[in-house]
Amino acid sequence: MSSSDRQFGAVTVVVGDKNGKYPHGNSLWIRGREATAVVDPSLSVVARAAEFAGRADLVVQSHAHEDHLAGVHLFPQARVHVHRADALGVRSLAGLLTIYGYAHLDAAMGTFVMSQFHYAPRRDVEGFEDGAVFDLGGARIRVIHTPGHTRGHCAVLVEPDGVLFLGDIDLSSFGPYYGDAWSCLDDFEASLDIVRRIKARAWVSFHHVGIIQDRGQFLERLDRFTARIGEREAAILDALAVPRTLEDLVRQRFVYPAHVTLPFVDAVERRTIRQHLDRVLARGQAERVGPDRYMRKA
Fold first, then answer.
1. The CATH number of the domain where 116 resides is what?
2. Which residue from 85, 153, 240, 274 has the least number of CB within 10 angstroms?
3. pLDDT at 114 over 70
């Protein structure tokens, strides 16, 4: 194992470059008496293929996104598991593109995930339900459905070591991501409450933050992460001091900094802003003042 890896009983956290900064990630390698599992095999696992390839009996996915699936091809004989709601994204490239929901970008996104993230369809993927348990012999993997980022996103609790893998509830300053077709802001907020209540001894995010071993620090990070939702909504309401269309708001940017030029940025902004716009309209905080024009209520 690498000197950057962290051990918690049966669990090894495979720490990625810059603490798992995208496109890299932090993965779990779990050795039981009877089986070995990898959770979210990332580019960090791919970079160490000589060490890991073919040595896992099962692969457990927190959800179906390109950076979390990057190393699945290293385990052709392993059984692959993901929540049933995200299974189509592991089963085929078309399914993964459906989860993203950027129809006009399908060709570019398909090339991107296959060339940069080694995407390889697994038609044999097995779908699990909330609360599924995988017993490795002396170590158990328990999945907790935490939708919002995707419909099938799950946190993964490794028992009895008490390691909670948060997937893309990544506690970063970027904040929650709910900008895909299969993302849902309401579900994400409910999932943030779920992970707050899970008892654990260590918390592992796939990106950025990495490993936290103090519950107080975890809760502080979670609070800041959660607060980004309200901050985005407040910023959108501020922008609606004058009448604006959805496309006006997309150009203003509330998710990505202005310098980011990735092809899917506008689609993510549109999906994210639309969810907040629906909220402030439903609450009476803003109103429609013309065809696709909105304004904050005084």
1. 3.60.15.10
2. 274
3. yes
